[in-house]
Amino acid sequence: MRPVTSDDVPILVIASDDTFAHVYPSLAELLAEPGNGGKFGGAVEFFDGTGRRLAAVFDPEWHLIDLRACADPGDPVTLQRRLQAVRDHVEWYLRTYPDIVTRARLTIEQAVACLPQLGDDLHDDIFGMPDHDKGDSGNFLHNAMHAAGWSH
User: Fold this and answer.
1) Domain that holds residue 104
2) What is the CA radius of gyration of the chain?
3) How many structural domains does the chain have?
4) Most buried among 5, 33, 71, 88, by the most CB within 10 A?
């Protein structure tokens, strides 16, 4: 496995149950995010912008310290299906538990319109997912993603 060293490699974090996804612009930003150097609160998987799986490297206390590119080629089609499952889950959550929508002073239709419209390009789909450049107090989509799925 090769280390992920480039500062411009996007990192997709997706819950193993496809209920949550966030994108980080780089490994450095993932590791710098408060709490990510600590123990994760649930089962997650890591991928780069091509859909290639990244293996987590932990220190003896199970703190994430690095990601390594796996030898297998990326599987963009499967990853796009997983991102669609995340998006569909969040839409289901917003329609089933509308209190998060009303607290944001949105209608259900407005909230659903905030969800990414996924298509045929994995890179575009990855960057349609919420990012973490604002910590845990991000925009509506960021917060809805936390409410609907895995949370750290």
Assistant:
1) 2-148
2) 15
3) 1
4) 33
Alpha carbons within 13 A on the beta-carbon side of 91: 14
Measured CA to CA, the distance from residue 138 to residue 152 in angstroms comes to 14
Helices 140-148, 76-96: crossing angle, 10 deg rounding? 90
DSSP H or E segment with residue 113: helix 108-114
- Secondary structure of residue 87 in the 3-state scheme: helix
Structure confidence at residue 67 as a pLDDT band (50, 70, 90): very high
pTM score, whole prediction: 0.81
**61-75 b/e with 16+ CB inside 10 Å = b?**
eeebebbebbeeebb
Which amino acid makes up residue 26? S
Distance CA 112, CA 100 (A): 12
Assess whether pLDDT exceeds 90 at residue 140: no
Q: What are phi and psi of 146, to 5 degrees?
A: -65, -45
- With a CB cutoff of 8 Å and minimum separation 6, the contacts of 37 are 31, 63, 64, 65
